[in-house]
Amino acid sequence: MRRVRKIQLGGIRKAIGGGALALTLALAAAAAYRTHEESDSEVFAKAYPQVSGTRLDGCEVCHSRVTAPPAGQRGGQGVVHNSCDSCHQATDYGRKKADVLTPFGIDYLKHGRDAAALEAIARLDSDGDGATNADELAALTNPGDAASSPEKPAAAHVVLSYDDLAKKLQARTQAMFVNVAKYKNGDSYSDVRGFRLIEVLEAAGVSKDAQSVDAISLDGYVTTFSIEQLRKTFPQAAPVFGLDKETLGECGWVSYGAKGLEAGKPLPPADILLSFEEDGRPYPAASIDAEGRLVGSGPLRVAAPQMTSPGVPDLSANAPEACVQKVPEIHRYHREYEKNADYCAKAVVALRVNPLPPGVVDIDWPKYAKQAVEGRGVVVFGAITAREE
């Protein structure tokens, strides 16, 4: 299970008026699965209950989007990231200060960061687009983004079921290594089967002007890839054996589900897939439990190989010291090892193709989450030519 992701900004501070204040917001789940666990989110939900279960029920109202290298890349052409990863990129996961708030978030902070603050700024036009904050939230447009305003229509979208994709695209199976940072399941070598993510976008009529895609999970988790990345195939390293529980007991953390693994032989080059199967088994359909946890990882998820530095398994950052001492230094936790699990998004229900064409706003993607899960499919919207009414 994955708990609904939260952006804890205790270490991410925005200096205003000479003081450093932290804004803490929860990233809520899709549709009716919202869970607010911090005071700011609770205050916001009470003041504007209409945003509950919508695309605004998350981080983007208060948190800005930054331009940075895409997932798994350390340099080169930057892309505009989703609001969650923007905080991570700008602050190095809370290790440094950065300006991460939208104009609405700044106004909320300046006016006291409470229910009275929301009331005080309701008639303001924080983003300067001609609509008040209250009117924008009533229309489910973003009061922190000048490009999002009530008079604009929703972007083009199309819902593609698994059957739709299977008729148009050739599925492929590839062995893939996934390196995790803290997850209990550990690192893995698996056979994943799915459709190339770029081909899914092409089936939706991706625009020639598209630059990136946000893969959005049922619980609101978002990962951003560049279109250039999606068109590439990435080399992989050779598997390293003897790091499983059978060999190391409770200290073992690597699973070897892929067939045909050979010591010293690199895994075949891999693509970024919208995957529907792992080691011959479909992913269990995801849902959000009563505690706001994501249960299950399917029907679809992103399977993305290491893209910068193909490498070897390393222990979890939370591994006990006894286990740390039991393995060679190369397999102890290394922050610099590429943790591609961070962008292997589970339970993907929506793909936002960026940038949105001029004059349109985001669709309310949570409305399509149930349809996507039941049809083992995905809603694609933004810079595409196809449209489904």
Short description:
It contains eleven helices and 20 strands.
Low-confidence spans: 1-37
How many helices? The count is 11
Beta content = 15-25%
Query: Major β-sheet, in short?
Result: 6 strands, mixed
Overall pLDDT level: 86
Distance from first to last alpha carbon:
34 Å
Question: How is this structure best described in words?
Answer:
This protein has helices at residues 39-47, 83-91, 103-110, 115-121, 133-138, 162-168, 197-203, 227-230, 245-248, 321-324, 369-374; strands at 2-3, 6-7, 13-16, 19-22, 25-26, 67-68, 79-80, 156-160, 172-178, 188-196, 212-217, 222-226, 255-256, 273-278, 281-282, 287-288, 293-295, 301-303, 348-354, 378-382. The protein is α+β, with helices and mostly antiparallel strands and 389 residues long. It has 2 domains: 2-151, no CATH class; 157-382, no CATH class.
Could you name the key traits of this structure?
20 strands, 11 helices, alpha+beta, 2 domains
Q: Which helices and strands occur, and which strands form pairs?
A:
Blueprint: E1 2-3, E2 6-7, E3 13-16, E4 19-22, E5 25-26, H1 39-47, E6 67-68, E7 79-80, H2 83-91, H3 103-110, H4 115-121, H5 133-138, E8 156-160, H6 162-168, E9 172-178, E10 188-196, H7 197-203, E11 212-217, E12 222-226, H8 227-230, H9 245-248, E13 255-256, E14 273-278, E15 281-282, E16 287-288, E17 293-295, E18 301-303, H10 321-324, E19 348-354, H11 369-374, E20 378-382
Parallel strand pairs: 10-13, 19-20
Antiparallel strand pairs: 1-17, 2-5, 3-4, 6-7, 8-20, 9-10, 10-14, 11-12, 11-19, 14-15, 14-18, 16-17
